[in-house]
Design goal:
Radius of gyration: 16 Å
Distance between the termini: 33 Å
Structural class: alpha+beta
Number of helices: 6
Number of strands: 4
Helix content: 25-40%
Order of helices and strands: HHEHEHEHHE
Shape: globular
Strand content: 15-25%
Mean pLDDT: 92
Low-confidence stretches: none
Largest sheet: 4 strands, antiparallel
Length: about 180
């Protein structure tokens, strides 16, 4: 698949097949794509990726996230069999740069997942609940001094691959 085709086909999936695992080699390729993202300040040691394919642990994160966010328990990962969490060191070179860096990493991973024929979604809100639970972060193997910033959920969509959309300018734009 060509890059622009993958971009045109990428869309958020909210109905993963929880029983269809993503092969480890595919996850490894997606993680490698994320690692090629531009990182503001070039401080790659200020970021950490956690790959979770353990359904019981994902369910536990759902419970803890719901409690932290004071909302009913639900599947914040939409049944995805794999979730890749981007965490950032609490010491960053500029305020908020961890969000820009994690967005670049996740976008690369989402495009790579689309290229592999997988559904995917960018997760931010639910990850904020996880970030509030230091015990769960430790259980996930997130290094001390790092906090979850956002995540990518990947897997096979129950509704099949997305159709490519026309690439159009859909945001307010001006040229000077």
């Amino acid at each position: 698949m060509q890059t622009l085709e993958a971009i045109a086909k990428r869309k958020s999936t909210r109905n993963f097949d929880p029983d269809k695992a993503v092969p480890k080699e595919v996850i490894d390729t997606i993680v490698k794509a994320g690692c090629q993202a531009p990182i503001g300040g070039g401080k790659r040691d200020s970021l950490h990726l956690t790959v979770c394919t353990n359904r019981e642990l994902l369910d536990e994160i759902n419970q803890s996230t719901a409690a932290a966010m004071k909302m009913p328990v639900r599947d914040f990962f939409y049944g995805a069999p794999a979730v890749i969490i981007v965490s950032a060191s609490e010491e960053q070179m500029a305020p908020g740069i961890e969000y820009a860096n994690s967005a670049c990493i996740i976008e690369n991973m989402l495009i790579a997942a689309t290229d592999a024929g997988l559904g995917n979604i960018y997760l931010w809100g639910s990850v904020q609940g996880l970030a509030r639970n230091k015990e769960m972060c430790a259980k996930m193997g997130i290094p001390e001094g790092f906090k979850p910033v956002s995540a990518a959920a990947i897997g096979y969509s129950q509704s099949g691959e997305a159709e490519a959309r026309d690439l159009t300018v859909s945001l307010s734009t001006n040229y000077v």
